[in-house]
Amino acid sequence: MLIVMDQHSTSAQVKAVVRRIEDMGFTANPIPGENRLAIGITGNPGPLDPGEFETLPGVLEAIPVTRPYKLVSREMKPEPTVVRVGDVEVGGEGFVVIAGPCAVENERQTLTAAREVRAAGAQMLRGGAFKPRTSPYSFQGLGRPGLEILQRAGKETGLPVVTEALDEESLGLVVQYADVVQIGARNMQNFSLLKRAGRCGKPIFLKRGMSATLDELLMAAEYLAAEGNYDIMLCERGVRTFGTHTRNTLDLSLVPAVQEQSHLPVFVDPSHGTGRRDKVVPLARAGLAVGADGLMIEVHPDPDVALSDGPQALLPAQFRDLMDVLRQMAPLLGRKLPPSAGAPA
Ligand code: PEP
Ligand code: MN
């Protein structure tokens, strides 16, 4: 149930509504909105009677929410959520490109990648210090020293940094160093991690599980919102299918489907979505065209020696060319991309 307050309602009237909800044993969630004050009710085991609330002073209307996810649904909040990360706005007119290596390997590799992607016009830097690898013998990430390197590279280039928390222990470290916490595909339904992440005070970049439905993705986001964190960016990164021509099947149809059901911004990751460098550029273009709010792209200064995901990493020159094409496409699609900053310093 969503309680929409009258524009002229007083704070005492709002408090009285919150008290009524809490007295019934439910949770009152103030919904941030531009033009109206609304209170979402969660924790009710079944449907509520709108009449119970519409008679309270200051209430404009009470709207039943029919979706299993409440706080992240468009029914609760019709206007798109804009997530602010430093000076970067995600979910507005701007199209935001997050780029960088799959993993932080060393200072030189990360700093070179950061300078290159910044020069090409990326607005955030990515790089994993805790890597979810299929094999326990593969490079697992540098851990805390990796976070330190990433943070330095972010500071030097002025780019906010995005990095993955694998578990509750690494989450504690990641929040100390990162601007955005990534929850990866393999952890999309790690509910205890989601609850912690919802309380961590940082924006969350939530990737779709490799066999997750739209509803499951949105329910995972609901875990974050239910803890009070609405700064959520969703990401399509490909799902498992029978196809072998790519690593995963990038499901671009998720983007308009999310936009229909949810107010949260949504990204496309054509790097994990295809796993092959030559497919990343065309599907990045498609990500902008389908209406995503941004892209996540892996870029490595020397992919042949990368410790993870080398085959899908773009070379810096390829990334620059891609950004040039995206800048040409963006105005047609009503999006804005920042200009390139020129050659890396
Ligand atoms: C990543 O972004 O480095 C990553 C591991 O992605 P995913 O969780 O989508 O596999
Ligand atoms: Mn990767």
Low-confidence region ranges: none
- Examine the coordinates and then state which fold CATH places here, giving the name of the CATH topology of the largest domain: TIM Barrel
Radius of gyration of CA atoms, rounded to a whole number = 21 Å
- Going across the major beta sheet, what is the strand order? 7-8-9-10-11-12-13-14
Q: What percentage of amino acids are in beta strands? A: 15-25%
Q: Quick one: overall form?
A: elongated
Identify the CATH class of the largest domain. Answer: Alpha Beta
Q: How is the biggest beta sheet arranged?
A: 8 strands, parallel, barrel
Helix content: 25-40%
Total E-strand runs: 14
Distinct small molecules: phosphoenolpyruvate, manganese (II) ion
Under CATH, the homologous superfamily of the largest domain reads Aldolase class I
Overall SS class: alpha/beta
Mean pLDDT: 96
N- and C-termini, Cα separation: 53 Å
Please give the domain count.
2
The total count of helices amounts to 11
Provide the succession of SSEs.
Answer: EHEEHEEEEHEHEHEHEHEHEHHEH
Tell me the CATH architecture of the largest domain: Alpha-Beta Barrel
Can you characterise this structure?
Strand 5 and strand 6 (88-90) form a beta hairpin. This protein folds into two domains: 2-12 and 22-63, no CATH class; 83-333, Aldolase class I (TIM Barrel), CATH 3.20.20. The model has no long low-confidence stretch (mean pLDDT 96). The radius of gyration is 21 Å and the shape is elongated. The strands form three sheets. Strands 7-8-9-10-11-12-13-14 form an eight-stranded parallel barrel, surrounded by seven helices. It has 345 residues and is an alpha/beta fold. It is built from eleven helices and 14 strands. The protein has helices at residues 11-23, 51-54, 107-120, 144-157, 168-177, 191-198, 214-226, 254-261, 270-274, 277-290, 316-329, and strands at 2-5, 27-31, 38-42, 59-63, 83-85, 88-90, 96-100, 124-126, 161-164, 180-183, 204-207, 232-236, 266-268, 294-298. Phosphoenolpyruvate is lined by residues 102, 128, 132, 184-186, 207, 237, 272.
